[in-house]
Specification:
This protein has 9 helices and 11 strands. The strands form 2 sheets. It has a 6-stranded mixed sheet with strand order 3-4-2-1-11-10. The protein starts with a helix and ends with a helix. The protein is of the alpha+beta class. The protein has one domain (41-304): Deoxyribonuclease I, Chain A. The longest helix has 15 residues, at 10-24.
């Protein structure tokens, strides 16, 4: 069964799983669930000086569900989200020179978002924005450390492990886009946890398109459970026009960091990509080591240097 499913498209697997859902859940109950999930897609407010908004968004190479390539529309959705830290997947072309697809100058000018710099594996990829399509943007802070991880599996996949010094406090961000095959995802989860096992402790968020909607022992996410658990049901983000599957996740360690979780469900987001963005309010108040004024001055000095 695992070998056969490897040759199914994502759409075929989605239709198969939806038929299974329809067989076990009455349509009236499904309608109630979807209405509840839409209500959860509310604006998350920052309630303390240590609160920030983080988000993850698979931008589908700036191609919307209407099959139109529109980087400006994608940038508009990013602006709607208003995140302090946002992880983007599929931000580069898949083949050839793999150049980046977004106008980074516009994102900085209009939204104050800066890209985390990544090393290019070759001169032919000098125009890439991210690492295997993973692009991390942030505001009001500095980059302390960046580690690029090449993930195992049939498809070329990667992850970024970035230590940020934000105005709100220190934060480690693991940005990842996991594979379509369950066996590959399990290997990739293990590789990520091995890569961060011996690093100095700091508040951490793991976010991205994890391509996994299952929970329990059959889920490839079980390897994250000890550090980022408990792994509970998340909000559905795929497909964007009628989201059924929670492919995109935001996990945190300690889990108490997450003070609110929602999808960014707007008319524009429903058409700009096949995934909806997911966002969370993270409270770093307990991890602030300097008063806000002193922290701002230290960050400005880092940026100037």
């Amino acid at each position: 069964m695992e070998r056969k499913s490897a040759f199914m498209s994502v759409g075929q697997r989605m239709k198969l799983d939806f038929r299974q859902v329809e067989e076990t859940v009455p349509r009236r109950r499904l309608a109630d669930i979807f209405a509840y999930r839409r209500r959860q897609s509310c604006i998350i407010r920052r309630e303390s000086p240590g609160a920030i908004l983080v988000a993850s968004y698979n931008i589908h190479k700036c191609i919307g569900v209407d099959k139109r390539f529109d980087p400006d529309r994608t940038a508009d959705v990013i602006g709607e989200i208003g995140a302090d830290v946002i992880a983007l997947q599929e931000a580069d072309r898949r083949f050839g020179s793999r150049e980046g697809l977004l106008d980074l100058d516009r994102l900085q000018r209009e939204h104050g978002l800066l890209p985390v710099p990544t090393a290019r594996p070759s001169a032919s990829r000098s125009k890439s924005h991210g690492w295997h399509g993973n692009l991390l943007l942030f505001r009001e802070g500095s980059v302390h450390d960046v580690r690029q991880i090449r993930l195992p599996g049939v498809e070329p996949r990667g992850a970024l492990v970035v230590d940020l010094e934000l105005l709100a406090g220190p934060l480690r961000v693991i940005s990842v886009h996991m594979g379509l095959l369950r066996r590959s995802r399990a290997q990739q989860a293990k590789a990520i946890m091995t890569a961060v096992a011996n690093r100095p402790e700091r508040p951490t968020v793991l976010l991205g398109d994890l391509n996994e909607w299952r929970l329990g022992n059959r889920s490839s996410l079980v390897n994250f459970g000890q550090t980022f658990g408990p792994l509970t049901a998340a909000l559905p983000t795929f497909p964007a026009p009628f989201p059924l599957f929670a492919l995109d996740r935001i996990l945190a360690s300690p889990s108490e960091l997450v003070a609110g979780l929602a999808t960014h469900d707007t008319p524009l987001a429903r058409v700009a990509s096949d995934h909806l963005p997911v966002k969370a309010r993270i409270d770093l108040s307990e991890f602030q080591m300097l008063p806000s004024g002193a922290r701002r001055e230290a960050l400005l000095e880092d940026v100037a240097a």
